Amino acid sequence: MWRGMLQRELTLALRRPQDVLTSLIFFVIVVSLFPLGVSPQLSVLQGIAPGVIWVAALLANMLSLSRLFSDDFRDGTLEQMLIAPQPLSLVVFSKIFAHWLLSGVPLVLISPLLGMQLGLAGDPLKMLMLTLLLGTPVLSLIGAIGAALTLGVRGGGVLLSLLILPLYVPVLIFATGAVDAVGSGFDADAQVSLLAAFLVLALCFAPWAAAAALRIMME
Amino acid sequence: MSAEYATSAEKSLPWLKFANPRNFYPLAGKMIPWFTALAIIFTLIGLYISFFVAPTDYKQGESYRIMFIHVPAAWMSMFIYIVMACYAAIGLIWNIKLSDMMAGALAPTGAIFTFLALWTGAFWGRPTWGAYWVWDARLTSELILLFLYLGFISLRAAIDDPRRAARASGLLALVGVINVPIIYYSVKWWNTLHQGASVSVTESPKMASIMLTAMAVMAFAFWMYTIAVVLARVRTDILEREREAVWVVEEVSRTA
Questions:
Q1: Whole-prediction pTM value?
Q2: How many domains is chain A built from?
């Protein structure tokens, strides 16, 4: 069942690759704007690089979140999922996993390129990739709750950002903190462990909360 | 079936009948003047102690007196979020309409106190730290708390069906309340400049007891104000949501 759901999500997304590409291009553009706005000096850019890349990742993730449930909501598939015998939280989890594969993983893969543009190299660059790898699934998981709560609500996209961005703060703090720590020659084990802890916590609670939110919005 | 259940429950817990908006409406109406009076009296006493009785601080001069508004407002901003989440949980779990209304009515007051804490904090920060705003842990987490309140209020306002709006925003409040300690500690580890808590439950206070009294009185006054305002807001909400009910029509035509 789980694999079937995942396959369906991936097939649907790959039939319309522009959706996946849009948020990736958005990510690249936002990051590329900072040198233009702040300063082209590498010393300045190095300092802000982790923050810039991470904030851009938050925004790119949120941009694609509004589509997480809305297509299935519009064509009635979501109602079928609600009355299906399979637990809704499992269905939601496979949707979130697909969302991460299509929106989070591309960000992780392209991040070294952007990091190098901003003057990151070596260990900090590797740490940036690691934090994105651990952090972006947390974003998708928490974001799914917001996406479910704004389903069919007018002005849903803007509202989603208001609901979800404050909840992303801990991930942002520890992810950028880890890159900064490695950049100044320290150990980032604490930050990485905390990010992993957030991931575990979000894995346990978010699919369940998002399923509850879906039930409220569809009843 | 529901009527039977209600009567048996009401027999064992007599006060439970006030969970019914119809019974709560007149009760709230009777309670509002008392809480308003208490709020006014305690504000006057609290302000009198803060301005005339409490001594001048040897380091911060007179500017520290803003603390008597700032600290209780910051306490209230956090307490109200927790109280709001509790009401939201009760509303979600036992499906009690009045509880949802209470959660919704608490949010604007909580947001106002959060804003007040930030605003007075800025005015206090200027003479003591030399800046209106610094990216200190507690300021930042208070700012994020304000965002959480605004998210709750906006979600509630964006959904037309009041029942669904209450349940959706209730779930958001619960997600928020789990996140509040996580956000607080992450921001704390991130950066700390704010003075340590001057009042703590586990250790003896580091300030003159008269200052503590003034703050406690102000906090009590804020509580009374909150209860009065929330009850008034819930009463309006009851009239709006139950506008089809006969008793509401009678009530409105009687008072109009």
A1: 0.87
A2: 1
